[in-house]
Design goal:
Blueprint lengths: L1 E9 L3 H19 L2 E6 L4 H7 L5 H9 L2 E6 L16 H9 L4 E7 L17 E7 L9 E6 L2 E6 L5 H16 L4 E6 L5 H14 L6 E6 H10 L6 E4 L1 H14 L7 E5 L6 E4 L16 H13 L4 H16 L13 H11 L1
Parallel strand pairs: 1-2, 1-3, 3-12, 5-10, 8-9, 8-10
Antiparallel strand pairs: 4-5, 4-11, 6-7, 11-12
Helix pairs in contact: 1-9, 1-11, 5-6, 7-8, 9-10, 10-11
Length: 349
């Protein structure tokens, strides 16, 4: 089979970790008889430098014409003083919106080899999937600045429609059905009207999934419960901003943010896959970045967009075996470089 992959390498360590993932995909192609072609495109800070905008029209067009998108990371201090509509992060929002990627799937798993890296000494195991709504909520609502009673003020609007809530809810319930049939919906229904609508529709959806053990949890309690006992969770569904924050919290429990992949999906097979970490400009070019989250993101691409389950499992197994054999990068207590850990995973494949 032949697949066309758009590459958004981005900024900072983005090019390094995407190159590692591409080498893994090439090895999979050889092993299983596939053909992957790549189209490197500008997005983020590098696009601003080259074109003046974070997401050139030709980049979005090429992404729409691809079978899926693999992203490294965007942003950095160099572009921090730009106005909001020209920040590198606008590229991510633009691709998500343009491709209709309303569902963000973020697994957070504590590998046996990294238990000592977990900051919680009482935790021995957990395997969570966070389903984050991705194209609605406060990040896409009306925002601006105005003169108020106390002077200049800024505002951002949280808004969710029934359609947006129900479609992400269905993804969450279907995911729960394939796992332990346990789902927690996280909101702030005691304060926010948008959360009250969210909770109403999630309860209505739960009637169609009687096998799923469904419950609600307020976001402040959820933040505490992730620290107290992360193993109590299996599948979590929540809004855009809450999902952004809670998934980063969960990532730290795994030992390093460099371990967490993600998939952004919509109604088609074309998705965007990326590590959840940032561009880490402080270590860019030093050859010590951890490419595992990006490699696992590539595995998610094989699984969700290309229906190549065996190939995805091959990558997942190679990564876990590498960790179990003590092949660790600096961020997870080892000494291996980006190139060295990539080569070990290639050997195991």
């Amino acid at each position: 089979m032949k697949y066309n992959i758009a590459l958004l390498k981005g900024d900072g360590i983005g090019p390094e970790i995407v190159d590692s993932a591409v080498s893994i995909l090439n090895q999979i192609a050889v092993k299983f008889g596939h053909e992957f072609t790549y189209n490197a495109l500008l997005a983020g800070g590098c696009a601003i430098d080259a074109t003046g905008v974070p997401l050139p029209e030709e980049t979005l067009k090429a992404c729409l014409e691809s079978d899926s998108v693999l992203l490294g990371a965007v942003g950095g201090p160099k572009w921090d003083t730009l106005p909001g509509n020209l920040r590198p992060e606008k590229a991510l929002l633009g691709v998500r919106k343009g491709l209709g990627l309303y569902s963000n799937i973020r697994p957070a798993k504590l590998y046996a080899a990294l238990k000592d890296r977990c900051p919680l000494r009482t935790v021995s195991d957990f395997d969570i999937v966070i389903i984050r709504e991705l194209t609605g909520g406060i990040y896409f609502g009306t925002s601006g600045r105005r003169n108020g009673e106390l002077g200049e003020e800024a505002f951002d609007t949280e808004c969710y429609s029934v359609t947006e809530i129900e479609r992400i809810g269905k993804v969450a319930f279907e995911t729960a059905m394939k796992r332990k049939k346990k789902l927690v919906s996280i909101d702030k229904a005691n304060v926010l009207e948008s959360s009250r609508l969210w909770r109403e529709r999630m309860h209505k959806l739960s009637e169609a999934y009687p096998e799923v053990e469904y419950s609600d949890m307020l976001v402040d309690n959820a933040a505490m419960q992730l620290i107290k006992n992360p193993a109590q969770f299996d599948v979590i569904v929540t809004s855009n901003m809450f999902g952004d924050i809670l998934s980063d919290e969960a990532s730290q429990l795994t030992g390093s943010i460099g371990m967490l992949p993600s998939a952004s999906l919509g109604d088609t097979k074309c998705g965007m896959y990326e590590p959840i970490h940032g561009s880490a400009p402080d270590i860019a070019g030093k050859g010590i970045s951890n490419p595992i989250a990006t490699i696992l993101s590539a595995a998610m691409m094989l699984r969700y967009s290309f229906d190549l389950e065996e190939e995805a499992n091959c990558i997942d197994t190679a990564v876990e075996t590498a960790l179990n054999n003590g092949f660790l990068t600096v961020d997870i207590g080892g000494t291996m470089t980006t190139k060295e850990i990539t080569e070990k995973i290639l050997e195991l494949i």
